[in-house]
Amino acid sequence: MIFIIAIIAVATTFLGGLFALRFKDKLHLILGFSAGAVLGVVFFDLMPEALHLSEKFFQPAAIITIVALGFLIYLIFDRLHFGYPCVDEHCERMIERGDFGAGSLAFHSFLDGLAVGFAFQVSSAVGLVVAVAVLVHDFSDGINTIALVLKNGGSPGRARRWLATDALAPAAGILVSLLYQPPEKILGIILALFCGFFFYIGAAELLPESHHAHPTVWTTIATIFGGAVIFVAVQLAGGV
Predict the structure, then answer these.
(1) 208 pLDDT band (50/70/90 cuts)?
(2) What is the DSSP letter of 235?
(3) Are 45 and 51 contacting, i.e. CB atoms less than 8 angstroms apart?
């Protein structure tokens, strides 16, 4: 069963990314959807899970502090390494920013795979609930990866390579989970840090970029729709 889930995760992520490539001329709408989806993952998926995993070890305020630390770490790295202006929209520094964001998403997908594998070690029922939660937003992960690379000047070929990395990441996480299980305390901290990373990506990068060149009501609707999709998906997964 767990290997079938790994294959489905790969396929679902690829489908989301190919959808984004097919409609890249509507990138502002895709970016708007991606912003809502990324923020939805933060507020409806990662943060509640980080608080749940850490409740036996830390106060909620400590986890929120780690989330803020993750946001500031990403902010500092982004400003110091990528913050100088580019004359050419395809300059190397912008492309590196896209790579960094896509790499963060891929690592998040790897953690998703670990979560699925570890949940199955608890029981098949728990594993299926977590697997549904992961699979339903893998499609959005594929869209988000393509959107981040393209909006930072990356080529479609580069976007496809990152899409392949992101698609394979949850399968890799599932395989690694069969070999090792980190302490629950550490996993909660990792999730909290990634909450901060994705909060920055969604709120400071994707959301302003989607609205900058196309300040229409449709980008706002796309953002709300992206968040709503993740909310509904997580609620449905929790009810399985």
Answers:
(1) confident
(2) H
(3) no
